[in-house]
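DM from R.C. (forwarded with permission)

"hey, sorry to bug you on a friday — could you get me a structure for this? deadline for the figure draft is monday and I only need the backbone to look sensible"
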Amino acid sequence: MEASQKAGGDESIVVTGYRFLSEDTSGTTNLPLPIEEVPQSISLVNNDFVKAADLKTTGEIAQYTPGAIFAGDQNSYGSLVKLRGFNSGYAIDGLPVGDSLMEPDVATLSRFELVKGPSSVVYGASRPGGLVNLVSKKASANTPSYVSALGGSWDRWRVEGQLAGSLNASDTVRAIAVGAHEESDSFIHFIKQKKSVVYGGLDFDVASNISAFVRASYQKLNRTPFEGVLTFADGTLPAGVGRSFFLGNGDGSVTIKTARVNAGLSWQASSALSVDLMANYQRVNREGGNSYVYGLQANGDMQARTERFLGWPTEDVNIGASSVLKLDDVGLSDSFISASVRYQSYRETYRGRYTDGQVNLFDGEDAISRYFGSLDGSAPGALTYRDQKLRYLTASTQANVKIAGTLTVLGGLSYSKPTVETRFVEGGAWRAFNPGGQVSLRGGLTVEPVKGLNIYGSYSESFQPQDRTDINDSVLPPLTGKQYELGAKYVSPDRRLLLTAAVFDLRQSNQQVFDQRGADGFDRFRALGEVRHRGLELEATGQIIDQWQIKAGLALLDPKIKKDADPTLIGQTRLYLPKKTASLYTSYDLTDGITLGGGFRHVGSERTSYNGATRPLASYTLADGSVSYKFDDWLLQLNVKNIFDETYYTVGYETLFYGIRPGEPRSFSISLRKDF
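My reply, with the result:
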C-alpha cells in the first residue's frame, strides 16, 4: 500500500486502508489547498487502484473516471482521453507537455490527476476540457520495495520490480529504482506487443528548509500497428469481420522510444514564503512504419497505405518557477498569493515515405497482410515532411482570501505569449502563425457551511494555439474556452471518503473537426464556430468503512453546436461523444487476508453523423472482478475483465473514414507480488 498524501506532499503520512484516495494537488493547481477546498473538479486515480483493477492504459483509467472518455487508440501509440468532451492536455509533475506523450507505464507513476475545465491561469496555453497530470513516483520513508510477476490472456506476461530506500544514515538522500518488462499477443490476429521501462529517482533534503529531486525514465514500446476495421458507408461492419479481424501488415512493427528527465527544488524561505523550481525534458522518437486502410467500398475495395518513418522525433522542454506567500502575518488567516512563470518549447519533425495501393476486404486477412508486405517492400513512395515548433511563455498569479471564516474568494489571471512556426518543405522557410498574447481569467467563491462540506462556484478561461491545418494549409485559429461551474465537495471527518458533485457550462470556439485527406497524405481539418458542453458529474472515492473501499462516478453530457458557418449544424448534438458514462469499482476485505473486488464501466451510445446516415456506436457495459489473498509479505491476485464478454468498439479520429477499433473481450490475469 502506498502512503496517501496531505496537501503539501508529505508522503510520510499514512492512513490505514486509505487506498483509492490521494489529496495533494498543489503541483497541478498551484493552490496549496486540500482537494475539497479547490473550486474546480479534480479526479484522482492512484497507483493502488490501478493495480487493484489491473488497469493497463490511460483509456481504462478514463473509463473509471466521471467526465473522462476513452476515445480510441490513435496510430496504435496510446490512448486518447477526452475530458468533458474535449481532447485533454497532459502534464508531468505539474509541467505541461505537448502531444508527443506516449502511453505511460503505471509502474513509474504514483497517481493520475484529472483536472477538468479550463486551466490557462495556471498553464497559459491549455485545452478547455482540462488536463491529465502524471505524478512520478518519489522516494520517501514509506516507499516499498517489491518484485512481482503476472501472466494472463493471449500469452501476456510481465515482470516488475522496485527498490527504494535511504542512501545515508541521516535519511537525507533517498533513492528509487523501477524496472518492468511486458510482452503479449492480442485477441486481434497478428498483433504482438513488447514493452520495457526503467525509472530512477533521487530525493534530497538539502537543508531543513530545502528539498530537491531528480528523476529519469526510459521506455521502449514495440508493437504491430493497427488502426481498426472499416465499416460500410452506413456504419455497419461487413459480414465475417469480427473483433479479431486484422487489417494491416502482420510483419510490420513500430517502435516508440521515450526518454525523460525532470528535476525540482523546493525552498521554504520562511513560515510565510515558499518557492519551487522545476524543469522537464522529454524526447520521443518513432521508428519503423505504419500500415492502414481507408475508404471501404460496397464491393470490398479499400485504399491501402504504408508509411515508412525516416525520422519522427518530438522534443519537449519545460521550465517553471512558482511561489506562494501566506497572508496570515497581515491578518488574513488561511489566505495566500501565488505566482508562477512557465516556459515550454515543443517541436515535432516528421519525415516519411508512403506508398499507396488497393486491396479487397474479402480477400481475407492473410492475403491482405501479404499485400501490405509487398507494398511496404516496393519502391519508395512520395516523401512527406512536416516540421512544427511551438513555444509558450506564461506568467500568472492567483489570490485566495478567506473572509469571515467560512467564505473564500479566489481570483487569478495569466498572460501567455505563444509562437507557432510550421514548414512543409525540408530546409524551407518557416511560416509563422502567431496568435498574439492572451490574458486568461479565473475566479471562484467557496463557502463551508459545515465542517468538511465546501460549496463553490467558479469561472475559468482557456487559450490553446492549434497546429492542425485546413485544406488551404492555413493553421486553424486558436481554441478559446470559458466555463461556469457549480459544485460541492465533502470529505469525511476521518478524511477517508471524498464525495463530489459538479454542474458546468463549457463553451469552446474553433474546435477542430476532420474535413478530408490532403494530397500530401496529411489529414485536413476545419474549425467549428462554437460548441457548448453542459453536464453533471458525481463521484465518490475512498473508504466507507475500514474494510470497504469504493470508487464510483456518473457523468451526463449535453454537447451542442451553437455557432457555425454551416447553419444546418447549429443546435446539433456533437458526434462521437456519449451523453452518459458511469462506473463503479469496490472492494471488501474479508477475514484471513482475502479481498473481493469488482465493478462496471458504462459508456452510452455515440452519434456518427449529423443527418443519421450512419449508425451510432452502440452503448456498452463492461463488468470486471478480482479476488486477492495476502499472506505475510506476499499478495496473490486474480483479475477478470469484461466478464460477460461484451462486444464494443471505439473511434479514434472522430470519423468512420479510418474505421472503428474493437474493444478487448473477456480476459484474465493472475499476479504474485512480494514486498520487502
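R.C.: lifesaver. The chain has a mean pLDDT of 88.
me: no worries. The longest strand covers residues 336-360.
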